[in-house]
């Protein structure tokens, strides 16, 4: 399946539970924001789990939507290259 991101910079948000991932997916779909639910990349965490990847250009909108829906955010990462992630933000 081809990537929906077409070589644009992407961000990965790690949420505290699969419940939050599913809630985020539903919200982003409703708002027509390009996204994908992915396994948490091993470069970020060795724990099993799911994360939400989206275009970095939508970062402010996505983060505002997640916060307004009371979705707890564990961390936000930017993809800097193949398998290279940079921590952008972490929940307090």
Layout: helices, strands, pairs:
Blueprint: E1 10-15, H1 18-30, E2 35-39, E3 50-55, H2 59-68, E4 73-81, E5 84-90
Antiparallel strand pairs: 1-3, 1-4, 2-3, 4-5
Describe the structure.
22% of the residues are buried. The protein is globular, with a radius of gyration of 12 Å. The protein is built from 2 helices and 5 strands, in the order βαββαββ. The longest helix is centred in the first third of the chain and has 13 residues. Strand 4 and strand 5 form a beta hairpin. It starts with 9 loop residues before the first strand and ends with a strand.
Describe the structure using short key phrases.
single chain, 92 residues, alpha+beta, five-stranded antiparallel sheet, 25% helix
Mean pLDDT: 88
- Succession of helices and strands: EHEEHEE
So what's the overall shape?
Answer: globular
Span of the ends, CA to CA: 36 Å
What is the assembly state of the chains in this entry? single chain
Describe the strand arrangement of the main beta sheet, using strand numbers.
2-3-1-4-5
Largest sheet: 5 strands, antiparallel
Short note summarizing the structure:
This protein is an alpha+beta fold and 92 residues long. The chain is 25% helix and 36% strand. It has 2 helices and 5 strands.
